[in-house]
Amino acid sequence: MLQFTARRLILSIPTLLFISLVIFLLLELAPGDPMAQVPLTVPPEVKERMREALGLGEPIHIRFGKWLYQFFVIEPLHLIDIMAGTDFAGGEQRVISWQTRSPVMDIVAQRMPQTLWVVGLSYVVGVLIALPIGIYSAYRQYSWFDQVGTFVSMVGFSVPTFFSGVLLIVVFSVNLGWFPSIYDTTHVVSDWDSFVVQVKQMAMPVFVLALFNAAQISRFMRASMLDNLGQDYVRTARAKGLSEKVVVLVHVLRNSMIPVVTVIALGVPQVFGGAIITEQVFKVNGLGQLLITAIQANDLPTVQTLTFIFAILIVLFNLIADVLYGLLDPRIRYD
């Protein structure tokens, strides 16, 4: 297992380098001009000097190499400086946003708590709801619980989040006045009352995303459980006198979790990527909203950095899923 993990980590290095090159070239070919938002009264020679200050006058390979050095060397050193109080990255140029003229990773660090509060919590809630619903629906196939679970899952998966989000705002914010319609990102939790306010403003966006995530994962869980409940080893376990609880929750569930782990693991990077539509509906100032504003402003360093961070997370959680396969199924070997 350790050798397999080491091989995969080494293989991920050229994979991520190739992904970063593809992202960089695609953004270079994308239409748009970072100087488009500069007032028309600015003389052309001043705009040209601004382009040179942003590094746009250099060849593509030079800019790509500088970005790699800044992302993989300068930014980790800056993080070490913050944690250890050192000065390894002192005076070095970091990845700077063209829109805000501040380091991109600093903006990401500011937006990350809002994304994890809303999107991260909704994913955890969705998984915790989906797994028992999928397990019991498969065990009681075609029962009233299965029928209701199937109906709710289809509704949650079919209805887009922008529709369900607006519907909740109309019902619970406009008509009933129970929850705020706009997420206050400046709110600080310091006591019980402020915690209650935080829970209220999180309730609707978390519910919208949790319903969507639970609908998808529960269907995978149900299908995987049904596939394993009819296997020969289940009849053998029952013939040996094992209790139904042990058969279902130990033998069947363990084998059924293998494909579901892939779905859950590959969904985790979406948490850090933010729920772009839901964040726009509830005005959550998270990473999804940051990516949208960066694209609209042609802020290529921010877009490139965010998309590459998402790519790193996808590769990492793919590896985690593969490792979990071996823990769930002893028959899987990584020789």
Provide a short characterization of the protein structure.
By secondary structure, the chain is mainly α. Helices cover 75% and strands 0% of the residues.
The CATH H-level homologous superfamily of the largest domain: MetI-like
- Shape, please? globular
Return the CATH class of the largest domain: Mainly Alpha
The average pLDDT is 79
Are there runs of 5+ residues with pLDDT below 50, and where? none
Q: Structural class, judged by helices and strands? A: mainly alpha
Topology as a string of helices (H) and strands (E): HHHHHHHHHHHH
| Whole-number tally of structural domains | 2
User: How far apart are the first and last residues' alpha carbons, in Å?
Assistant: 8 Å
The number of helical segments is: 12
Features of this protein?
single chain, 335 residues, mainly alpha
Topology:
Blueprint (H helix, E strand, L loop, with lengths): L1 H28 L14 H10 L6 H25 L19 H36 L4 H15 L2 H15 L16 H38 L2 H8 L4 H30 L2 H7 L4 H10 L3 H29 L7
Helix pairs in contact: 1-12, 4-5, 4-7, 4-9, 5-7, 6-7, 6-10, 7-9, 9-12, 10-11, 11-12
Description:
This protein has 335 residues and is mainly α. The protein folds into two domains: 63 residues, no CATH class; 221 residues, MetI-like fold (Orthogonal Bundle). It is globular and about 85 Å long. The longest helix has 38 residues. The protein contains twelve helices and no strands.
